[in-house]
Request: fold
Amino acid sequence: MMATRQCTKTACARPAVATLTYVYEDSTVVVGQLATEAEPHSYDLCAAHAERFTAPRGWNVVHIQQDYDDPGPSPDDLDALAKAVREAGRPVVPASADPRPPLASEPRRGHLRVVASDV
Reply:
């Protein structure tokens, strides 16, 4: 399953559809198609943030014209989510369900243990 990248804006969990890149030499910001791989000096944006992005004062903004369609979750994403929910809902069965209590010589979990008396 191919993981989708999220918008890099704080508290935004929407999927990224555009990449923002700063060109420092030209004082230009380019907002265009989502890059195929995440780059360390580029920022992924969702459709809402890509459309209303503004650059710092004195900088030019180049919007490469495209429709920023948010495709939503793919069938693979929904299938993976359904499998995860099913897995989380399964009851936990201990690996060794031994009904007999441990002996005093056997290590036990917890802070209490049985001590054999010599009476």
